[in-house]
Amino acid sequence: MDKGISSASSQISVHVPGASYTIRIEEGLIGRAGVAMGTLTQRRKIFILADETVWQLWGKALLNGLKPLEPDVIRIPSGERHKRLSTVEKILEQLAALGAERSSLLLAFGGGVTGDMGGFAASIYLRGIDCVQIPTTMLAMVDSSIGGKTGANLEIGKNLVGTFYQPKMVLCDPLVLRTLPERELRAGLFEAVKTAVIGDPALFEFLQVARVSVMGGNPAALRHVIHACAGFKGRIVSQDEKEGDLRRVLNFGHTVGHAIEAATGYKRFLHGEAVGWGMLAATKLAVDEKLLTESAARRISALITSYGPVPSLGRISMEAIERSLGVDKKVRDGKIHFVLPRCIGEVVVVGGIPAIKAIHALESVMVTAPFETVQPPPRGSKKVTSATGAKQRKRTGK
Known about the structure:
Blueprint: E1 5-8, E2 11-16, E3 19-25, H1 33-37, E4 46-51, H2 52-66, E5 72-76, H3 85-97, E6 105-110, H4 112-124, E7 130-135, H5 138-144, E8 152-154, E9 157-161, E10 169-172, H6 182-199, H7 201-209, H8 211-215, H9 219-239, H10 254-263, H11 271-288, H12 294-306, H13 318-326, E11 337-343, E12 346-351, H14 355-367
Parallel strand pairs: 3-10, 4-5, 4-6, 6-7, 7-10
Antiparallel strand pairs: 1-2, 2-3, 8-9, 11-12
Helix pairs in contact: 3-4, 5-6, 5-9, 6-7, 6-9, 6-11, 10-11, 10-13, 11-12, 11-14
């Protein structure tokens, strides 16, 4: 798994055909973003895309970090429900009105929604301008900012429109997570759990033993998780940029998760929360298909639910979920493909399983109300020793 990627301290290099870029993970990067990007910012117009919430919290810090550059700022509404082609069109219109050129650079500053739409807009404006991802949520740092997937949602399904368009750089500053709501942190951590299940048993163990520290927002614990996930995804993307085969394993929990988001109008669940439900359903489906032992399933499900609570599925329409499963972007030759665990650290992509079996697995999980008894510890509640043996600090800024 070391092919195509190298890491040194806080930097991870990703190599795909025709493109190479660095993921930098350092506290305080926002305050020195201009220096970190180096020659990428020279002799070109700079544009920042940010949602209103992120800009209010961190916009001034980014502008200070970019001095003496004077970028133009494009703001968009916050939330998954705005991840639509209509929003992308508004971004493109503003780029044109502000005089963006083919040599311009777009900085996608925000969570997964901003990063996906920013990358998409960059990939199609003037047939492609450069983009740098500056993620501000846990989910974006561990997953969506890496790998070049961009896009927007349609009413019938998630991410059905988009491109593969690699960023020129990814800048992850864990300090911005200080202002991340607890629910958003948990949602992002489900993507970390996903990484652990599909290919990182050491991370799986860390997420178990260091749960209090991770959920409490301990900076050292979060850095460890971000670096592990970014490194893993970088290795996958370096070997399979456009999801021809290997990269499909990253969709563990996403087939059902995306269907849940679409069936609830992208309003009830954060993306990571829907993936949490999706991973539970996929784990149950793996047991039903005789791919996973009951004991391994219990361990996987226990880790997933320990990072709750998550909103209930309530009276969700199974018919709506089934419709969304049928148009999922991972459907091939008319067959739905599911990523199912075989053990902790290994998954397999299985096609041809009828949607009704996935529905039954989800219904079986719902009956147990898995998230209802889980209460996360207050942020910053305890300290633990990280996997590297370094004593972790109390949360910065508290």
